[in-house]
Model the fold of this input.
Amino acid sequence: MTSVQTLKELKVLQIYYNGQLQFFDDDELQDFLQITGKYGRSVEDRLGITGSLTVFELANIARRKAVSWNEKANGCMLPGSYIDAASIIARSYEQMYYHLNALSEE
Done:
């Protein structure tokens, strides 16, 4: 089953590949491509992690990325497509954090 968030990610990918969305640096672009699954669908792939980390450590990385992307989404004087994409990316990281945090508390 496909989630609404996954469909939003696919829409942002379409906008990016149509040349209607630009990121400010390679780190942002890599973050975007990783979270949307270009390099794999595992948590580690989507966070851009190589090697093994605990669920707690993965959750903290996802939380930091969510905060960073939320800050980008709140930027003024940025193109609307960028703000929309940043919001969607932030939400993807928030959902990942939520699930990883729940696992780490078990």
